[in-house]
# Entry
Amino acid sequence: MPTIFEKIIAGELPATIVHRDDQVVAFHDIRPAAPVHVLIVPRKPIPTVDDVTDEDQPLMGHMVLVARDLARQLGVAQSGYRLIFNCNAHGGQEVYHLHLHLIGGRPLGRMIAQT
# Structure
């Protein structure tokens, strides 16, 4: 069964697309955690970071470069932003199609509270 991201990539579900090329599609998250919250999603369906293969290395680099360019375009590069891959349940992954979160536009604080 296709994921929600596969449906967005195929144009079957609406999304506010901010970048599209032959490798990835990037769009605004529908539940933003900050003023800027974009998801960079590969067209290739890869369930989790743990499923990335050595052959996916160029794709992974491309995702980071797209995130960098979008941070600049969306005005958060100078003030700072965060890139996040969540992996599996304990990592907070909700959609099992690899995606990179670009989050910025406000102070983000610590990633994980120290205990």
User: Anything to note?
Assistant: Residues 4-104 form a domain with the HIT family, subunit A fold (CATH 3.30.428.10).
